[in-house]
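[agent] plan:
  1. take the single chain provided in the ticket
  2. run structure prediction with default settings
  3. attach structure tokens to the ticket
  4. add a short note for the reviewer (M.T.)
[agent] executing step 1
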Amino acid sequence: MPEKLDVELVVMVGVSGSGKSTYAKKHYHTHVIRSLDNISKKDRIIWLNSIEQNLKKGESVVADDENVSKTRRKKLIDLARKYNVQVIAAAILAHMDIA
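[agent] step 2 finished; step 3 output follows
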């Protein structure tokens, strides 16, 4: 399957309150933003499924969650590989006094 270089999965990475959602809205306005802010953590499967559906339709997506663990990022990277789309990690660094 050829790579879809015009489709991206942007994986936001950073602690809670670091500005990930704000950054995503400002810099990825052409992407579908899927945030766990609006979904309970136990509904993570639904969140991942919605991201997969967007990628399947050829839509660029921002996975807006902390994604600080390698295990969580791997699930998203595996989805990007499944659909041969670019994966970008956008790490938001913040001083702990701010976040």
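[agent] step 4 note for reviewer: Residues 44-56 form the longest helix (13 residues).
[agent] ticket updated
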